[in-house]
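Hi R.,

Here's the chain you asked about this morning:
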Amino acid sequence: MYMEKVLSVDNLAVSFDNQNVLKGISFSVEKGEVLAIVGPNGSGKSVLFRALLGLIPYSGTIAWNKNLKTSYVPQKLSIERDLPLNVEEFLALKESNREKIIQALQTVGLEDEHHIEKHLLRQRLGWLSGGQLQRIMIAWSLLDDPDVLLFDEPTSGIDLGGEGTIYNLLKKLGDQRNLTILLISHDLNIVYKYANNVMCINKEMVCHGIPSEVLDPKALARLYGGETSFYKHEHFEH
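And the predicted structure, written out as tokens:
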């Protein structure tokens, strides 16, 4: 069966001050796919996202399907508690329709409409918990009805209980809206549970494919260096 490609990348390379940060990266992403990107700190994962979004110079080819809308959720926002900006004012920077804002907040599981209108919209961003703020950022990303979502470690700074909830939400949104999702993660359990495919990078491509097939001890040793303990995580078939 033919699957529509939304992104094709060929021989991507990024250099800063004549130092290779990424080189020889080639892959494609199909519509509705969840692709996890894994690798050690400094391996170029966030740089890859910045290149895909056209934010930094690169060589090689990045070809997005025409007329796609993409949204990006950064790893973590550091917001001062006394920042004089509430949830409604923040989301209104992107969408003026209050009803659509409320709908987006409900989509990401933030209370019922009455509570949203009476309480949440008036909350300052700096007063929100890490999990609430991450949901607000996901709601922000949904306001322009994107086709592709890019998440840079979407649960950074969130406790383990909230982490699973955020990934459950992403999977639910992906299934409901047939979204294509690219996410950076450091947790192989998450990769097994939520991703159709995984791409391992450490400045260059180390592995790419179905997690249960490509995440073997040899690939992990190349990815993280040295002897790497490895075990099969509990996972489900997509």
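Residues 77-145 form one domain.

Let me know if you need anything else.
M.
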